[in-house]
Design goal:
Layout (H helix, E strand, L loop, with lengths): L1 E9 L4 E6 L5 E5 L5 E5 L6 E3 L10 E9 L5 E8 L2
Parallel strand pairs: 3-7, 4-7
Antiparallel strand pairs: 1-2, 1-6, 2-3, 4-5, 6-7
Length: 83
């Protein structure tokens, strides 16, 4: 898992750019259909299933990477909001 903060969200392209907390590296992630996205559930502060539209710039997240595409983008297998 990689921890980072969401810098940019592009719903049309299904991409999210994060800045990693460990070394400030920027990663652009592609979200294929079926990618696991979990967001904070406001009542219990646990997590619940969500989609890209539920994410916001500034959220801290943990991501699990899948395959890389030919253009260097990383497919995201799982994203969990931690803030």
């Amino acid at each position: 898992m990689i921890e980072g903060r969401i810098k940019n969200i592009d719903l049309a392209r299904r991409t999210v750019t994060i800045t990693t907390t460990q070394d400030n590296q920027e990663l652009t992630l592609i979200f294929p259909d079926g990618a696991n996205i979990e967001v904070t559930e406001p009542t219990t502060l646990g997590t619940m299933g969500g989609d890209l539209a539920d994410l916001r710039e500034g959220y801290f997240v943990e991501v699990e990477l899948g395959a890389h595409s030919a253009d260097g983008l990383c497919a995201c297998a799982s994203l969990v909001c931690i803030s």
